[in-house]
Amino acid sequence: MSLDRVGVEQCPSDSPYVERIYRAGEVAGPVPARMRSVANSNWEIVVWRGQGETHVAVRGPETGPTVLDLGPATGETIGIIFRHGAFLAPMPVSKLVDTAVSSPHTTARSFVLQGEEWETPTFGNADVFVDRLVRAGLLVRDPLVTEVLRGDTTTLVTPRSVQRRVAAATGLTQGAIRQIERVRQAVLLLGQGVAAVEVAQRAGYHDQPHLARSLTRFTGRTASQLRRADDDEVLSLLYKTDVAVRS
After folding, report:
1. Does residue 28 carry a pLDDT above 70?
2. Any transmembrane segments, and where (predicted)?
């Protein structure tokens, strides 16, 4: 578990369905006024609590950058980011790309998902909540998708079948996922102080101009802008994944 400088607490999960669990605000600490959401190839369930209200939404993958106004630094946000290959059976991920679906009814303790009432998850019991979704048959996974994106090869199904299964489970193509994960790795390296020319090489870009175009497309920022600290704006959660960006 880690707590970064902008008050976002995060931890990995032992669940094969979950990539990361995080929370921001309140216990984790204050956050800036804005968040720049870098393109993201995973979907997530997000819970917002503040000013006596609770909101729950399923957020899909994002193919481009967005800037969110976080408003006053009050309340708490909890997120469960799901692994590639995990999806809600009645809710195609393709319908969630670049959008979010809010629960039609929420209280401090429960919310409605796919017509059923569920206990609203907390940072401490997120894995228990996920296990309940799995047992109910609502959350399923296609292990082949996880393996293929990790760079494993398979001869059990045709390449076309692999493409269909990746698209069905993630809402994106393999190429789009690798592009997004590559740029997220590049942003992590830039944040560690690695020179742009070395970042381009290590992240698998053809050259530095290729890196620059990718940064602009998926983050809305240049390498220099990403390096500069901004007290009023924070980047969305970034972390290393198992996706083979060079495949």
Report:
1. no
2. none
